[in-house]
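Structure first, sequence second, as always.
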């Protein structure tokens, strides 16, 4: 059930031709916009060669042509063109708000917008809920920066926390999101629509959210850059939650520089989210100043060798990337540290407890007929032919059985999961005098299966940083049999500047990203 504003290809073609393509060659202009980064678009708008209206129209047209096979977009912002027109008028008067002025941005469907769009976490349960009373804090920040909210992206329903056997990228609202590099293989989740949209050039930037892997996994599966930032850099207010001790929004882009520009806009102190009251948000920095071509020189990076020896093709690809790091002046140190197996049970307990508590609070504040998790469970049972046709809601049922956040079982699990994950990273960094850790983000994605993900033998490296609340950046590293593989760089709390420097320097040398080959459907 995807909702689009009433527009026609003829209208969009007119807008594109009139506003951006003075030569009249629409296809040529459209091809120039493919893979375009923020700086290129800003230069074109500054020179009067492109307008925000034309840019929005271009992406709307491309979405109409390509998204029927991808299912990445749930709905478009009916106000996007009028917002773009107002921003064009500001630019004409000499006012440019920021590097994001006039740049279209997509939002994952669990991020509140107080406008004509829905916010549902992909579920039919919230389709008729009242619109949020106000934008999520990060959306306020984007609007103030002059970004244009282009639409909402499909996602794994309830951020993949309804069933342990769900299919990544599936929601009752949008169906199954498809990977543009291989329509039969998983786009990963839960920020699947955001990643697929950028990979297919349906927008410039997107915002995803992550509890454990939901930014970095789909980013890697779709050959884009994803930043899972430190907990506390970006406000959680106005985001449909899983667990406050791990949840964070984060930038998704085709380049490290664009991701850094988006991060600049998202980082701020929010008085309504206590965790953002810290020195990093009180004294914001321009993360682009850390994007140095020689950013790898002199860095000591630990290689997580436990992920080698299981997949020969992945080993070969990663060894090539490690050679790039060494040749750029990085010193690599092999090590093996305990990963998710040491805290997986504790993490699950934390998520179950916090999901019930946090979702109940969100639904109560949102208003409407569904006031708590029990109501959502009942809705799914009453609409089982759609919501529960292929997999259940066992995680919902387990969460509903949990007590409040003063429960000793919860407090013990929270302390254990945080201590083990943070100690594993901190000890490696300190004892080996490392600046960062590196690992493959993923191996080849599994085949899409409506009955749920079949991930046996799959390699993932999201959990350590996710549970610790530490940053993780994934960058395209290449392809195995045409399927995208990412490389992850992560380190301690608020180490984004160093990680961005490393990731950017690597990206400039590897130049691994290639756009998918897609055919328009109309």
């Amino acid at each position: 059930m995807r909702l689009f504003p009433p527009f026609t290809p003829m209208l969009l073609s007119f807008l594109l031709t009139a506003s951006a393509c003075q030569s009249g060659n629409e296809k040529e202009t459209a091809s120039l916009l493919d893979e375009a980064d923020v700086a290129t678009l800003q230069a074109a708008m500054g020179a009067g060669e492109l307008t925000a209206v034309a840019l929005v129209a271009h992406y709307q047209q491309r979405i109409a042509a390509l998204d029927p096979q991808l299912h990445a977009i749930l709905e478009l912002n009916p106000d996007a063109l009028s917002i773009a027109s107002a921003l064009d008028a500001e630019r004409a008067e000499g006012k440019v708000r920021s590097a994001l002025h006039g740049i279209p941005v997509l939002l994952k469907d669990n991020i509140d917008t107080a406008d004509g769009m829905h916010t549902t976490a992909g579920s039919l349960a919230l389709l008729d809920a009242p619109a949020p009373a106000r934008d999520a804090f990060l959306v306020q920040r984007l609007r103030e920066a002059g970004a244009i909210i282009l639409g909402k992206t499909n996602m794994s329903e309830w951020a993949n926390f309804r069933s342990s056997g769900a299919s990544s990228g599936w929601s009752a609202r949008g169906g199954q999101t498809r990977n543009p590099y291989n329509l039969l293989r998983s786009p990963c989740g839960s920020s699947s629509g955001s990643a697929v949209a950028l990979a297919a050039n349906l927008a410039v930037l997107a915002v995803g959210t992550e509890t454990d892997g939901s930014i970095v996994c789909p980013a890697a599966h779709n050959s884009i850059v994803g930043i899972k930032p430190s907990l506390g850099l970006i406000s959680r207010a106005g985001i449909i939650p899983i667990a406050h001790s791990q949840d964070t929004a984060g930038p998704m882009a085709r380049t490290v520089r664009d991701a850094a520009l988006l991060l600049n806009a998202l980082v701020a102190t929010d008085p309504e989210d206590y965790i953002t009251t810290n020195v990093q948000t009180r004294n914001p920095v321009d993360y682009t100043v850390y994007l140095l071509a020689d950013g790898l020189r002199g860095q000591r990076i630990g290689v997580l060798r436990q992920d080698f020896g299981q997949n020969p093709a992945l080993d070969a690809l990663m060894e090539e990337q490690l050679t790039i790091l060494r040749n750029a002046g990085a010193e690599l140190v092999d090590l093996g540290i305990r990963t998710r197996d040491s805290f997986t049970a504790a993490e699950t307990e934390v998520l179950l407890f916090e999901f019930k508590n946090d979702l109940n609070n969100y639904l109560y504040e949102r208003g409407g007929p569904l006031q708590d998790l029990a109501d959502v469970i009942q809705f799914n049972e009453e609409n089982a032919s759609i919501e529960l046709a292929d997999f259940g809601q066992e995680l919902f049922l387990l969460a509903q059985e949990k007590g409040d956040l003063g429960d000793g079982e919860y407090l013990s699990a929270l302390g254990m999961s945080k201590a083990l994950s943070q100690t594993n990273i901190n000890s490696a960094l300190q004892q080996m005098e490392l600046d960062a850790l590196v690992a493959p983000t993923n191996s080849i994605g599994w085949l899409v299966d409506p009955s749920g993900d079949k991930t046996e033998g799959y390699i993932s490296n999201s959990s350590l940083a996710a549970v610790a609340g530490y940053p993780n950046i994934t960058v395209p590293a290449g392809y195995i049999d045409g399927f995208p593989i990412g490389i992850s760089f992560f380190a301690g709390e608020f180490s984004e500047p160093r990680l961005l420097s490393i990731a950017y320097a690597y990206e400039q040398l590897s130049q691994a990203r290639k756009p998918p080959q897609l055919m328009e459907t109309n």
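Margin note: The domain at 9-269 is CATH 3.90.1300.10 (Amidase signature (AS) enzymes).
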